[in-house]
Amino acid sequence: MPKTWAISGVDLHLDLDGTRVRGAFESALRDAVRSGRLGAGVRLPSSRALAADLGLARNTVAAAYSQLVAEGWLEARQGAGTRVAERAAAAQPPPAAPPPAAARHRHDLRPGVPDLASFPVVAWIAAARRALRAAPADALGYGDPRGRPELRAALAGYLARARGVDCDADSIVVCSGFAQGLSLLCRGLLELGATSFATESHCHRSHHGAVAASGLVAATVPVDAAGAVIAELGAAGGVLLTPAHQFPLGVPLAAHRRTAAVAWARETGAVVVEDDYDGEFRYDRRPLGAMQALAPDHVVYAGTASKSLAPGLRLGWLVLPPRLLEPVLAARRLTDGPGALDQLTLAELISTGAFDRHVRRSRLACRRRRDRLVSTLRRRVPAARVTGIEAGLHAVVELPAVDDELAVVRRAHDHGLMLEGLDEYRVGGEPRPAALVVGYGTPPEHAFSAAVARLCAVLARG
Ligand SMILES: Cc1ncc(COP(=O)(O)O)c(C=O)c1O
């Protein structure tokens, strides 16, 4: 039976089986000292206190202490209790050799995660405090499956203002990130009789996988320089698009393709899901408004706080056409969404303008990073071509001189740099020429230049 006792503020876990309790206790304690979990000089509880904690006879504990004192693992001094002996520290294995330089200086330029060190901690705490103080008691109940009304109202205003979304608070369902939103949507579509659903041929494998796991047939639609090729959607019951900034290729969905997608949905009764995962991060042009506003009855708008704040919050939202609201809510009732306190806090952050300020700061910081990445690559690896950089937190670095994209990823890894190749995101169609999907949002500010330098060094080797 596993037992635990707290010592020096640390919970020490000992595995004691029911038979031969004394032997088990003795060897568990010996192992804890030998492995260093109990360091030299740590004072052990009295045999009486420990026996009471562990539900053992005091004699059992006292006898084990005596045995370990005799073996030199413990020291017992009159009036000073029992401690781990200094000699025991010497018996510990020497510290492992330092890892090679590459492993010590890990840099991460994979796409997906913003700079978590720039999360607005102070503003978040202040908003949480205010939100909790103002919240009605029922905010801590199970609540509305659509999510907290405060957050839905704040989002409705923000999305209309910042992204041009056509919505009201009642058409919004708050979910645990886009990942959960997509699963809920698939279940809702199944309920409405859909049998298949397409993702873009390059996308997050987990999104394509979630479609397949829902029981829908997971189809794919090719992507070219104008975004998803809508003419090839055929009879799918829905499609997941990334119109503002195709993930991962980085192209925006051209205006004629937007119109075509909406016309396709109207004609066939299918649903377009607009994944606006990084819509806040547009640098060189006026932000592309959400395509949902073209046809709110046929397009689901999906947003997330994973890029603008942090993915660990697991906060996302769907703006639903009326016919999908009930089926999605039915699926939502079978599972949990984000906690009420985080929802209230985000609502407060948005309503006070602190969210907008944070987004503006992050956008500026990311734009600077993007410019540094592009100019450094241009200087040091002129053969590489950087695309998809008008928006978002990642760029596609095309490598015309490279045959084996995976070999570059492996070499980078050996040099302490985590990267991802474009083919990692292919769920349909033919492989494209070698390229990397470089996420420039992730490293903390102080490590960004070193990460880019390492990327250049890896690529410059050919
Ligand atoms: C294409 C795309 N969609 C959506 C998301 C956000 O997913 P979630 O809200 O589940 O964290 C991401 C985040 O990496 C993404 O890359």
Integer-rounded radius of gyration: 28 Å
Helix percent reads 40-55%
According to DSSP, the number of beta strands is 18
Separate helix tally:
15
Low-confidence stretches: none
Identify every distinct bound molecule in the structure, by name, code or SMILES. pyridoxal-5'-phosphate
Q: Strand share of the residues?
A: 15-25%
Largest sheet: 7 strands, mixed
Report the structural category: alpha/beta
**What strand order characterises the main sheet?**
6-14-13-12-11-7-8
Shape: globular
Instruction: Give the end-to-end Cα distance, rounded to a whole number of Å.
Output: 57 Å
**Taking all residues together, what is the mean pLDDT?**
91
Structure notes:
- This protein is an alpha/beta fold and 462 residues long.
- Helices cover 41% and strands 16% of the residues.
- A 7-stranded mixed beta sheet has the order 6-14-13-12-11-7-8, sandwiched between helices. The protein has a 3-stranded antiparallel beta sheet with strand order 15-16-18, covered by helices on one side. Strands 1-2 form a two-stranded antiparallel ribbon.
- A hairpin with a 6-residue loop joins strand 15 and strand 16.
- The longest helix has 27 residues.
- The N and C termini lie far apart (57 Å).
- The structure holds pyridoxal-5'-phosphate.
- The site of pyridoxal-5'-phosphate has 13 residues, from helix 8.
